[in-house]
Design brief:
This protein is α/β, with parallel strands linked by helices and 164 residues long. It has one domain (9-158): Collagenase (Catalytic Domain), CATH 3.40.390. Helix content is 44%, strand content 15%. It contains five helices and four strands, in the order E-H-E-H-E-E-H-H-H. The chain is globular.
């Protein structure tokens, strides 16, 4: 049997169900499939609160505020580019794509602000982070941001998730 993606979801806030963890894994697998990631890989997910993501943001990026999602890619990729299979961990055979950290407080606040469900907001942030791990960016309001938004919407549509 072929190796599967390894997608551990660490939770350090109350109220996250097993179903939510499974949903996050489904979103990641869908995004990876649609981005043609067919090799076994690892993405580590941490669900936390605003205070912890603020600390991580300050420590890792020198940005002194909380945020909704942080992505820490293992590789410096460009959209459509994939890591080489020789980058796989020799012990596990998995290619480590990177880490994502999501503030569940931001998920709830932004869902309310934008008038959609927490599930939709969580899915959006997970997809957004996976795309960052795969080299997409939105540093400006130009073509890079448009390219990323197009991919986000395509992946969410594949999952049957709309702006509700």
């Amino acid at each position: 049997m072929a190796k599967q993606h390894y997608l551990p979801v660490t939770v350090d806030v109350p109220g996250v169900s097993g179903a939510q963890r499974a949903f996050i894994r489904k979103v990641i697998r869908t995004a990876l499939r649609l981005e043609n990631v067919s090799f076994p890989c690892e993405i580590d997910v941490r669900l936390t609160n605003d205070a912890t993501i603020h600390e991580i943001n300050l420590d890792m990026r020198k940005v002194d505020c909380s945020t909704d999602v942080l992505s820490f890619p293992a590789f410096d990729l460009h959209p459509g580019e994939l890591p080489d299979l020789s980058d796989a961990d020799p012990g596990s055979g998995l290619v480590p794509l990177g880490d994502m950290v999501i503030s569940m407080e931001h998920v709830a606040a932004q869902a309310e602000e934008f008038g959609h469900s927490n599930k939709r907001e969580l899915a959006y942030l997970v997809v957004h982070s996976v795309l960052h791990l795969l080299g997409y960016d939105h540093l400006d309001e130009g073509p890079l941001k448009a390219q990323m938004r197009t991919r986000e919407e395509a992946i969410l549509a594949e999952l049957g998730i709309s702006r509700e």
